[in-house]
């Protein structure tokens, strides 16, 4: 599979973000890509919640999703939308942070709502309370594509290996981890966590990321990665926005899992702990 990763600096204009993704879909297909991968919050990135509330739509009315589906069909390209934000989606009034896998006819093949929400206070003074606006997903999701079964996740999920255990047990051989990582946590943990997820699951990891300074004044880390099942980094896009391609040889999964059969050796562990 030839994967195209779009490292974005998404802003507060959904139309501009949608046009950028559509343009990259055309470029990716022209360069021989089979599938395009975009970061978390690809359609709209804004920490001003009042302004966001006036801009965001429900999934059925979202112009960014419609534009990307149209571009996928036009160019005959599969697209993974790292995530889009939707309001009016949940009974408790909170919004949804949702990934999509779209096929080459523009049809939605899978949806995944982010399970683990980013509620942290960083040493830099940054404070994030994602759960005050977004409701958590409750269901792990994997999707079959022409190249592999892909397990879906979003950003902060990467710190919770149980999710990837479930996905790899379900037959996923590619793990998708779109993100909008902060700079301090990215510098400390981004590469380590993604390589660990690849190694322990015996999977490829594809992690398209937001980068740079955004219109809402936040900064994101970038360094979109492709990691193979042995933990080797096949692609690191650094800090610049743009498109990059990576060749993914799925036979590598079988080779690595034969060398270190960690999945075959897994055992169920009781949640009851003996305190000695």
Overview of the molecule:
The protein has 276 residues and is of the alpha/beta class. Helix content is 27%, strand content 25%. It is built from 6 helices and 16 strands. Helix 1 runs parallel beside helix 3. The relative contact order is 0.16.
Shape: globular
**Which class of secondary structure composition applies to the elements?**
alpha/beta
- Count, helices: 6
Global mean pLDDT: 95
- What value does the Rg take, in angstroms? 18 Å
Spatial strand order of the main sheet: 5-4-3-2-1-16
Low-pLDDT residue intervals, each spanning 5 or more residues:
none
Largest sheet: 6 strands, mixed
Strand content: 25-35%
Report the order of strands and helices.
EHEHHEEEEEEEHEHEEEEEEH
Distance linking N and C termini: 50 Å
Task: Indicate the percent of residues in helices.
Answer: 25-40%
* DSSP summary, beta strand count: 16
């Amino acid at each position: 599979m030839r994967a195209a990763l779009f490292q974005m600096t998404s802003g507060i204009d959904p139309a501009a973000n949608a046009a950028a993704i559509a343009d990259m879909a055309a470029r990716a297909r022209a360069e021989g890509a089979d599938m395009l991968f975009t970061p978390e919050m690809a359609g709209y990135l804004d920490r001003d919640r009042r302004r966001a509330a006036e801009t965001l739509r429900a999934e059925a009315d979202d112009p960014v999703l419609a534009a990307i589906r149209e571009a996928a069909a036009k160019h005959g390209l599969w697209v993974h939308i790292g995530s889009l934000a939707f309001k009016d989606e949940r009974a408790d009034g909170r919004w949804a942070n949702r990934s999509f896998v779209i096929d080459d006819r523009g049809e939605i093949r899978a949806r995944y709502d982010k399970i683990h929400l980013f509620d942290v206070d960083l040493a830099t003074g940054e404070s994030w309370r994602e759960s005050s606006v977004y409701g958590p997903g409750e269901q792990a999701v994997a999707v079959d594509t022409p190249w592999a079964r892909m397990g879906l996740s979003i950003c902060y999920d990467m710190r919770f290996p149980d999710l990837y255990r479930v996905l790899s047990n379900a037959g996923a051989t590619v793990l998708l981890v779109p993100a909008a990582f902060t700079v301090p946590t990215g510098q400390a943990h981004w590469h380590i966590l993604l390589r660990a997820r690849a190694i322990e699951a015996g999977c490829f990891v594809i992690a398209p990321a937001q980068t740079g300074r955004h219109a809402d004044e936040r900064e994101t880390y970038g360094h979109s990665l492709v990691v193979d099942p042995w933990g080797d980094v096949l692609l690191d896009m650094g800090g610049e926005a743009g498109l990059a391609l990576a060749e993914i040889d799925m036979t590598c999964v079988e080779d690595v899992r034969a060398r270190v059969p960690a999945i075959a050796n897994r055992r169920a562990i009781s949640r009851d702990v003996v305190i000695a």
